[in-house]
Amino acid sequence: MSASTSASASSPRAALPGAPSLQRIAWAPILAVAGIVLAALLAVSGRYGYHRDELYFIQAGGHLAFGYPDQPLLTPVVAWTMNALAPRSLLALRIPAALAGVASIVSAGLIAREAGGGRRAQAIAASCCAAALAVLATSHFLTTETLDLAFSSVVCWLLVRLLRTEDERLWVVAGAVLGIGLLNKLLVGVLAAAVIGSLLVVGPRALLRSRWAAAGAALALLGALPYVAWQLAHGVPQAAVAHSQAQGGEEGGRGGFIPFQLALVGPLLVPVWLAGLLGLLRMEGWRRYRCFAVAYLALVVIMLATSGKAYYIAGFYPLLLGFGSLRADAWLERGGSVRRWLLAGAIALTAAASAFIGLSVLPVRDLGGSIVEKLDSTEGEMVGWPRFVATVASVYHELPPATRARTVIFTKNYGEAGAIDLFGPARGLPRAYSGHNGFTEWGPPPNSDTAAILVGEELEATVAADFSGCAVRAHIDDGLGLNNQEQGVPVWFCAATSRPWSTMWTSLRHYN
């Protein structure tokens, strides 16, 4: 072996995946990347407005329960708490989401280190994760997917570390994190179950026979218990929510599932995570981690078979980027400066595209009909709520005082009801009612309230069946021509109900 070959083989940057030596954590580049993303997320947090889910979560947290028809309790508790600490502050509300994005980025870098990557590989992993559309778009506002991605990333890092060190006590730590994650959403449990099932198939199975593994499983189940108990006590409404989502054809349905995976990180960075996936499947040095690749592929098949949403497997991408970064680093080592510029350009272009699509960087006046609105409908869901509430308030205050005293405000979806409950008190509006998801648990209105303002799409059948003396008093207009659920819908006033609210409530409930 020549001197140059020997030097190359001993270089940390050229270390083969699975090498026995473990590099130091590259805190400087990892935290620098995470810090840039955190600053960017907080800087744009108030440019548009609340997302409909955030409006719902704030109200759900104020009706504290072990669960809700569509989710466990953690995200509503976080949303309500942040709003209570800093009322009507989007910056405060979205700090937990931004920190969750940071957790995913740091996890990717740490996974690269556990896999044997040096400083540059760890920086590549963190940078690719930071540039990913799935990370930036979900960390921009507070939603269950935001926290789920963070919990999935941290659990994957802990499991990678467990497999490398064979320190069985890490089962307890991973189980505790998983249990907290299950208080947010059951999806992280699906990811963990797929990994554990794959361990049984491809090994190493010996780690599963530990008492520490049993203790970790107990902690995870403890986290799932409140939501499972609530669901069982309420007839498992989550099943209806899941069925509605499967029928909705979101993210292009089954035909769009695979293409959407290419977009979750970004088309230019597909070679990085794909190299990680193929390396996990084929490289002997990574055999101990093969369960992750098997779990990922198994979930792809399961999601295609069950019409699962395309982002349901997003929790695997920080891990795949972590492993793929080592192969990207080795690719850079074999080439010259051109390869470094190519990778840097791919990361930079992906970050720019992800920020343009997933963050509120486009001026709000230009959002309607833009490519951003077409590619990411969540941006359009963040605009127009104050005008929405103002329109409802104008109809309400046109009513005679005696009529207002017996008038209910009923909306089609939880975002509309949440907006009225957040912005309405300042305009003299009473609380809103809705038959959608969690709001079904907080109604029906009093039977003595026999007049109603009804707002929301597709309410014509409800108006005809359950109300009389109805007329359209206004239409919602956000002033920007956005293509969202509220734009152009009528605001009805109905003078009387055809039957008591308690009787009609069953027909007004819906889960989706």
Based on the model shown, name its key terms.
five-stranded mixed sheet; mainly alpha; disordered N terminus; globular
Unreliable spans are 1-20
How many strands? 5
Q: Tell me which oligomeric state these chains represent.
A: single chain
Number of helices in the DSSP assignment: 24
Strand order in the sheet with the most strands: 2-1-3-5-4
Overall residue-averaged pLDDT value: 91
Characterise the protein shown here.
With 512 residues, the chain is mainly alpha-helical. Helix content is 61%, strand content 6%. It contains 24 helices and 5 strands. The chain has helices at 3-10, 27-43, 52-62, 74-85, 90-114, 119-131, 133-139, 144-165, 170-182, 187-202, 211-233, 237-248, 253-265, 270-282, 290-306, 317-334, 337-358, 371-375, 377-380, 385-397, 401-404, 414-423, 460-466, 501-508; strands spanning 407-411, 432-434, 451-455, 467-475, 490-497. The chain has a 5-stranded mixed sheet. α5 runs antiparallel to α6. It starts with a helix and ends with a helix.
Question: How do the helices and strands line up, and which of them pair or pack?
Answer:
Elements: H1 3-10, H2 27-43, H3 52-62, H4 74-85, H5 90-114, H6 119-131, H7 133-139, H8 144-165, H9 170-182, H10 187-202, H11 211-233, H12 237-248, H13 253-265, H14 270-282, H15 290-306, H16 317-334, H17 337-358, H18 371-375, H19 377-380, H20 385-397, H21 401-404, E1 407-411, H22 414-423, E2 432-434, E3 451-455, H23 460-466, E4 467-475, E5 490-497, H24 501-508
Parallel strand pairs: 1-2, 1-3
Antiparallel strand pairs: 3-5, 4-5
Helix pairs in contact: 2-5, 2-6, 3-4, 3-22, 4-5, 5-6, 5-7, 5-8, 5-16, 6-16, 6-17, 7-17, 8-9, 8-10, 9-11, 10-15, 14-15, 14-16, 20-22
